[in-house]
From TrEMBL:
Coiled coil: none annotated. Residues 200-209, 236-248 have a biased composition (Basic and acidic residues). InterPro entries: Saf4/Yju2, Yju2. The gene is YJU2. Zn(2+) binds at C43, C46, C80, C83. Residues 298-308 have a biased composition (Polar residues). This is Splicing factor YJU2. One of its GO terms (molecular function) is metal ion binding. One of its GO terms (biological process) is generation of catalytic spliceosome for first transesterification step. Residues 179-259, 272-320 are annotated as: Disordered.
Length: 320
């Protein structure tokens, strides 16, 4: 069974590679590659910032008539993410970096140049010291003098500050301690006042709750029942008289008419006895100490006669 992915190619015995025609491609042909921005840059057209690491689909070409130690230099074309302006930069194999060419400015370029200058000066000094021992001694003397000057300037600045400041550090520390103690004392007093206020409030609340509970639990004293006064009948006599007088006034007004005056009849004490539910004893009713039977019922009377009975009963009660 043959392999699915064949890596070896079959070359027939009569294969001649010189007979394969070569493609005639231009030397400055371009390829589309995927790359990231090698440094921070800012577009000159719209001012958009393009940060390091932003991915682009760039066109790549080989720079003609430029090389470094036989290494080709490549140029890349990208477009701004905002205004689509074309930006170009190329490789710098001498400094192992990239060089901005057109369409944008590189950020932090001044800082980069300063670092490069420092590195160049340091490298030149090392080369001189390597070949010239006297140069080493001169450089060391210069460094020691520079260090002494720096120390002298620093001491002068310290003396100047001390003369102009006149600061008593002990007094400052003492004042700080006093202020700290005062602050702690004030905080303690405030805490004590708050605690006393809370205790007083809780005591008042407890007293109020106790008083409310005592009022709720105290039973009400029962009112003694009023006993009937035996002499209350005597006190009712003036009331009976007043009722009789009012009845007389009403009856007098009623008796002024001849057709109604005949209906009002003065009842005797018999009617009052009948109203109370007792009948007078008949002659012969009591015989041999035995009570007679119940009294016969009286026939019903009219409403006007009942009014007369009411007046007679009050008159009789008043006379009694």
């Amino acid at each position: 069974m043959s392999e699915r992915k064949v890596l070896n190619k079959y070359y027939p015995p009569d294969f001649d590679p010189s007979k394969i025609p070569k493609l005639k491609l231009p030397k400055d042909r371009q390829y589309v590659v995927r790359l990231m921005a090698p440094f921070n840059m800012r577009c000159k057209t719209c001012g958009e910032y393009i940060y390091k690491g932003k991915k682009f689909n760039a066109r790549k070409e080989t720079v003609q008539n430029e090389s470094y130690l036989g290494l080709p230099i490549f140029r890349f074309y990208i477009k701004c993410t905002r205004c689509l302006a074309e930006i170009t930069f190329k490789t710098d194999p001498e400094n192992t970096d990239y060089t901005m060419e057109h369409g944008a400015t590189r950020n932090f370029q001044a800082e980069k140049l300063l670092e490069e200058e420092e590195k160049r000066v340091q490298k030149e000094r090392e080369d001189e010291e390597l070949n010239n021992p006297m140069k080493v001694l001169e450089n060391r003397t210069k460094d020691s003098k520079l260090e002494m000057e720096v120390l002298e300037n620093l001491q002068e600045l310290k003396d100047l500050n001390q003369r102009q400041a006149h600061v008593d550090f002990e007094a400052m520390l003492r004042q700080h301690r006093l202020s700290e103690e005062e602050r702690q004392r004030q905080e303690q007093e405030e805490d004590e006042r708050e605690t006393a206020a809370l205790v007083e409030e809780s005591r008042k609340r407890r007293l109020l709750e106790d008083s409310d509970s005592e009022e709720d639990t105290t039973p009400t004293q029962p009112q003694p029942a009023l006993r009937p006064n035996p002499t209350a009948i005597l006190d009712e006599t003036p009331k009976a008289k007043r009722k009789a007088e009012s009845w007389e006034r009403s009856v007098g007004a009623l008796g002024s008419r001849p057709q109604l005056s005949g209906l009002v009849v003065k009842k005797t004490g018999l009617d009052s006895i009948i109203r109370r539910g007792r009948a007078p004893p008949l002659p012969g009713a009591m015989k041999n100490g035995q009570a007679a039977g119940p009294a016969p019922q009286m026939p019903s009377t009219s409403s006007l006669s009942q009014l007369g009975v009411y007046s007679d009963s009050e008159d009789s009660s008043g006379s009694n």
